[in-house]
Structures are given as C-alpha cells and as structure tokens.
C-alpha cells in the first residue's frame, strides 16, 4: 500500500485539497470522492457538488463515457494504469481536454483513482506544433531544393531532393561527416571559414560552389546556410542546396553566344565600314569620267549645228549618263541611310513655290509623253515650312518620275492636302496618282525593298529599284511614311505624309532651271584650274558660248601665276591636282593681296559634306561636286558675280 494511505485523515485531506491536479475516486460509475481541484476543473464550486453524481456528468456524451469505460477496463482489469487524453465536459456544457491517469484500487472499496489534468491549453500548443512539424515535413519532402541539417559537422537529417542530388538513400547519409558533401578538405575548411562570421551573427551565408556526389562526380551548386539559434550550440546548421548545373551550362552558353555575337557585330561593322569606304571610292571614281560625258552632252545639246540624228545620239548619251549618276547617288544615299549617316538639313521653304518648281520640272516630262499633269493644293497650306528641300524634292521627283515612267496614256496628278496642323507643325499629305500600268497586289509591299522592281523588263531597265526604298526612308526621317494603292491596268496612287514644322520667316525655293544664253553687262574673265585637260576643255566649251573670257591652268602653281597675270573675275578650282592641290592654292590666293577677293568655286569628285567643308574652310566661295552640273556652275558664277542672265524662252530642265 502506498505510503500516503497510512497518513492521518487530516493529512490525507490536506494533500488532496492542495494537489495541483484533480483527483477523483470512482466506483460503480459514480463519483465517490474528489478534491477541490477536480471540482474546479469541471466547473463545480465545491467537491460536494460532484460527489454522489454519476461520472457521466464530466463527459460530453454517453458514447464518450462508454468508450472510455471500455478502453480503461482493458488496462485496469489487468492491474495496469490507464493513460489517455480525453475530451471532457464542464458543468456549463463547454468542453475541455484532460489527461486522465487511472489506476484500479483493489480491496473492499473497489474502484478507480483518477488523476485529472486540464491540458486544454497545452494540447492546443502541442497540436499546433504537430501541425507545424508535419507541414515542415511536407515542405521538406516536396521542396525542389536539397535541405540538410548538420550538427557538430555531421549530417543529421535531409530531405528527398538532397538525397537524390547527392546520391544518398533515405538514411545512408545520416551520421556521415558533412565533409563528404564537398570535393576536398581544403574546400570544406574554406567554406567553414567564410561562413562562420555570418552564421555566428545569425545571418545566412550564401555561396556558389562545387559539391560532390557519392559516386565522386561533382556538380555546381548554390548553397545557403543558416543557424537558427546562435546562442544554442546544439542547434543544427540548416543548408539549402540547389543544383545549378543547368544554370551554369546556360550561363556558359549565353556567355559564349554573347561573345560570338559581339565578334559577329565587330565583323559586320568592319564589313560595313569597308562597304561604305568602297562605295565612297567607287562613286568618286565613277563621277570623274561622268564629268566628261555629261558635260559634253550638255554642251553639244546647245550646239545648233547638230543634225537631228546627232542630237538624238547626244540625248541618249545625256540620259544614260544621268541614269548612271542617279544610280551612283542612289547607292550612296542608301548606304548612308543604312549606316545612319544621312542627316536632314531643314531650312525655311516656301511650300507653294516649292511645289510649283517640282510641278514645272515634271510637267515638261509629262508633256513629252503626251500625258496630262495636274497640281492641286488647297489655298490654306502653310506658307513657310522647315524642310530639307533637296530631300523632299528627291522623294516627290521619285514618285512623280515613276508615275510618268509607268504611264503611257492619261494623266499624272500631284495633290497636296493638309491632314492636320497646329501653330507649330503641319501634317501634309502628298498624293501622286497616275493612270498607268498599275502594280499587281503581290508586288505592292515588295517594291519598297531595295532593288525590287516589278512589271515589264523595259521599264525596269530605266531604274535601279532603289528610289522607293530611299524615298520611304526619307519619309520616315520626316516623321511620315509612304503607302500605295494600285489597280493593275488602271493606275497607282502613292501617298506620302510628312510632318513639317511651320515657321514665320519667309521661305526660299530654288527656281526651276531655265536654259541660259548669255548675260548682260561687260565680258567677265574666268580662270579654270584643273589638271585633267578634258575637264578644262569642257568648262571652256561651256563658258565661252555664254560670253566668258576663259583662261586655263593645269595645277595649283600655274593657277597662282595665271591668277596674278590675268586678274580673273572668278576662278574655278579643281581640288585634286599634282604639284599644288586646289585647297592649298585657294589658301594662297586668299593670302595674296591681288587675289584675296576673287570668288573661287572649288570642284571635287568627292561629293561628301566633309569635302565641301574642307573647301569652304580653305577659302572657297562655293563648292560643286563632280560631275559638275554645268547649270549649277552657271548659277554659282551668276550669283558670285551678280550676273543678269539672258534666258532662252522655253523652260526645260
Ligand atoms: P525604279 O523605279 O528605279 O525601278 P523604285 O524603287 O522607284 O525603282 O520603284 C520600284 C518598282 O516599283 C518599280 O520598278 C516598279 O515596278 C514599281 N513602281 C513604282 N512606281 C510605280 C508606278 N507609279 N506605277 C507602276 N509601278 C510602279
């Protein structure tokens, strides 16, 4: 018999009443005895209220009561203690969880002693913990990363992914030194050294490094280590390990691809530069002979003594030469556009005057083909706009030139409309419509590609297939675009739209060229300095009939001498010459007292902006590129000498 049963009834009472657990004695399913704590647990104010009642009162329902009875009987009848967490009931009907410890008492007062503890609160916490633990286990098992716990440099736990990554079975890694996870002792020690400072302050340590599988192979990983409680040395270090093999491979591929791309880009740039250089050189080389061809075509065209057949021949030479020149210019333009080196130079332009000049040029060609040409524009067009006149004319002439080229009967129409405008800009629509051969639907988009031509071979021969590609790029640069609609056999309509800033200043426009016959006033003296005899002869042949006195020199030195000797009113100077080049000769003329003020027109086969700039810096009054458009030369001479030209009556381009 336990010791305390030998105590006096008073002592027994004191023990029972002061116990922190509920104590009940039951027999025959009734409560025979209980202490204050038991009454309190079940919500009774004193043991008296419980004693004498059936034990059923502390169970939620009969079923629960019966079940406990059955489960307990199995143990108690065998003389064993019974332990269970059981849901019980308070007096007010609410439920609570209790830990029940029952023990049968043998002997005359046969019954059971119950020790009851209210575990409602701790059970909640425990359930919570259980849930968290099972959630954790769920996360661990399903995580796509390896998770391993190490303690004292040994592996204590890991998840499925980790096992798979490192080649362990479910528990073959447990207890192994963490060192086996890396390639060498050195790397392991090094990792420890680097991780320690962060881990000891509670921060995670992260790195990428090679890890080792059980079969000895290695693989690239990213690792994060973390110690949950730095104050407690028994705490495990948690490692989260990610297999980065694929990532590393992708990274390597990307790096290599980038390197290849860079190399390809470099190669392309070199090739592109070579292409641009080649084109610039080629155009220079082609312009020089064209100078002679076009020059003499122009001069002979002025010769009244030619027979009709000869005149036709000269015309063909002139047209073929012009075609070649257009080709060269187009190719140069295209390569400049492709290299992003073509810049617009907007100036104030009188829009209506500009359109009339374009129309004048086109009308002549339309007349020659017996086509009707119409120019239509609204009266409320802005007066002056900022535009690169040369480029805008290039686009219009290209569209109109095509319209005339591809139309045999009917008309070509140039129609301007104002699509939108505000105080600063005008959105101008320009439509070129013809009644020509039209374009098949399948060719409509292709014709804007460089070198794309559609339609008959005879027409193709007259073009390069570059015009529309260049025109569209120029339209883009002017903030607009070109589109086309067409019906084969009926005609085409090309619509260009551009955004043009509106300005208040008066605009200018280059007049349509008219054929010159001579000039009013005293005879003027022109000195032509060029090492190529043909070029000189060309100038002489052109300028003499216009009434100029023409002198010649074959290089810069001779040029300086002649300039002093004949005191010319104007000098035409070739830039590239032996002995003394044109630029240097120009500089010296500008430095000489007698020659300082003589206007000098520099001529170069290089059509670039840079060579224009160089000439002007050397002191040139004007710059022309070869092949020299003789009309342009006359314009410059007239401007520089203030000449009053005598024109032929008919206006032709
Ligand atoms: P090119 O006229 O020098 O051949 P373009 O780029 O200016 O080059 O034109 C490309 C092609 O578009 C032409 O060859 C022609 O087939 C077609 N095309 C352009 N304008 C017209 C038009 N008004 N009517 C019919 N076809 C045209």
What features would you highlight for this structure?
653 residues, alpha+beta, Beta-Lactamase, Heat Shock Protein 90, 4 domains, five-stranded antiparallel beta sheet, 18 helices, binds adenosine-5'-diphosphate
Structure summary:
Helix content is 42%, strand content 24%. With 653 residues, the chain is of the alpha+beta class. The protein folds into four domains: 3-124, PAS domain (Beta-Lactamase); 143-243, 2-Layer Sandwich (Beta-Lactamase); 343-501, Histidine kinase-like ATPase, C-terminal domain (Heat Shock Protein 90, 2-Layer Sandwich); 515-648, Rossmann fold (3-Layer(aba) Sandwich), CATH 3.40.50.2300.
Describe the structure.
The structure is a single chain. With 653 residues, the protein is of the alpha+beta class. The chain has four domains: 3-124, PAS domain (Beta-Lactamase); 143-243, 2-Layer Sandwich (Beta-Lactamase), CATH 3.30.450; 343-501, Histidine kinase-like ATPase, C-terminal domain (Heat Shock Protein 90), CATH 3.30.565.10; 515-648, Response regulator (Rossmann fold, 3-Layer(aba) Sandwich). The protein is built from 18 helices and 24 strands. The strands form six sheets. It has a five-stranded antiparallel beta sheet, sandwiched between helices. The protein has a five-stranded antiparallel beta sheet with strand order 7-6-10-9-8, with helices on both faces. Strands 12-14-15-17-16 form a five-stranded mixed beta sheet, covered by helices on one side. The radius of gyration is 52 Å and the shape is elongated. Adenosine-5'-diphosphate binds next to helix 11 and helix 13.
């Amino acid at each position: 018999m336990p010791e305390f049963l030998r105590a006096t009834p008073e002592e027994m009472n004191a023990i029972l009443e002061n116990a922190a657990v509920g104590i009940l004695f039951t027999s025959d399913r009734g409560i025979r005895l209980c202490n204050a704590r038991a009454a309190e647990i079940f919500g009774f104010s004193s043991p008296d209220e419980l004693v004498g009642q059936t034990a059923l009162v502390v169970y939620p329902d009969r079923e629960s009561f019966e079940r406990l009875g059955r489960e307990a009987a199995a143990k108690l009848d065998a003389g064993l203690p019974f332990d269970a967490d059981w849901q019980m009931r308070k007096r007010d009907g609410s439920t609570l969880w209790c830990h029940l410890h029952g023990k049968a008492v043998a002997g005359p007062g046969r019954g059971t002693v119950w020790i009851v503890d209210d575990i409602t609160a701790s059970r909640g916490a425990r359930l919570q913990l259980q849930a968290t633990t099972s959630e954790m286990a769920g996360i661990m098992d399903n995580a796509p990363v390896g998770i391993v716990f190490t303690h004292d440099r040994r592996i204590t736990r890991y998840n499925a992914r980790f096992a798979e990554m490192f080649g362990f079975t479910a528990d073959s890694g447990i207890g192994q030194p963490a060192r086996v996870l890396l390639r060498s002792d050195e790397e392991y020690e090094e990792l420890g050294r680097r991780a320690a400072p962060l881990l000891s302050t509670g921060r995670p340590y992260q790195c990428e490094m090679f890890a080792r599988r059980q079969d000895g192979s290695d693989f690239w990983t990213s690792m994060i280590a973390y110690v949950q409680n730095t104050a407690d040395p028994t705490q495990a270090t948690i490692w989260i390990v990610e297999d980065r093999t694929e990532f590393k491979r992708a990274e390597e591929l990307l790096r290599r691809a980038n390197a290849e791309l860079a190399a390809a880009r470099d190669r392309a740039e070199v090739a592109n530069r070579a292409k641009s250089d080649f084109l610039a050189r080629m155009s220079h080389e082609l312009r020089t002979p064209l100078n002679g061809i076009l020059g003499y075509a122009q001069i002979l065209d002025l010769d009244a003594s030619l027979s009709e057949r000869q005149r036709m021949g000269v015309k063909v030479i002139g047209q073929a030469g012009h075609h070649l020149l257009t080709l060269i210019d187009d190719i140069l333009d295209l390569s400049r556009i492709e290299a992003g080196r073509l810049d617009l130079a907007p100036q104030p332009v009188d829009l209506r005057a500009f359109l009339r000049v374009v129309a004048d040029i086109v009308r002549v060609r339309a007349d020659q083909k017996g086509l009707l040409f119409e120019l239509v524009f609204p009266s409320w067009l802005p007066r002056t706009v900022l535009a690169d006149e040369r480029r805008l004319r290039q686009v219009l002439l290209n569209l109109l030139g095509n319209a005339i080229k591809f139309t045999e009967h009917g008309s070509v129409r140039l129609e301007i409309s104002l699509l939108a405008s505000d105080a600063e800009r005008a959105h101008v629509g320009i439509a070129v419509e013809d009644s020509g051969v039209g374009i098949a639907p399948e060719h409509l988009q292709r014709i804007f590609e460089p070198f794309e031509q559609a339609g008959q071979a005879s027409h193709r021969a007259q073009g390069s297939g570059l015009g529309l590609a260049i025109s569209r790029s120029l339209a883009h640069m002017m903030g607009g675009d070109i589109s086309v609609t067409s019906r084969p056999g009926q005609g085409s309509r090309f619509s260009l739209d551009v955004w043009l800033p509106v300005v208040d200043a008066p605009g200018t426009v280059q007049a349509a060229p008219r054929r010159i016959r001579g000039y009013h006033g005293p005879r003027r003296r022109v000195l032509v300095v060029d090492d190529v005899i043909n070029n000189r002869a060309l100038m002489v042949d052109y300028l003499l009939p216009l009434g100029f006195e023409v002198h010649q020199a074959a290089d810069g030195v001779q040029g300086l001498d002649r300039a002093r000797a004949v005191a010319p009113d104007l000098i035409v100077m070739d830039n590239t010459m032996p002995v003394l080049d044109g630029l240097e000769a120009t500089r010296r003329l500008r430095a000489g007292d007698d020659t300082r003020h003589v206007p000098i027109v520099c001529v170069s086969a290089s059509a670039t902006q840079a060579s224009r700039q160089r000439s002007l810096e050397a002191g040139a009054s004007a710059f022309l590129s070869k092949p020299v458009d003789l009309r342009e030369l006359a314009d410059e001479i007239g401007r520089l000498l203030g000449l009053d030209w005598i024109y032929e009556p008919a206006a032709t381009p």
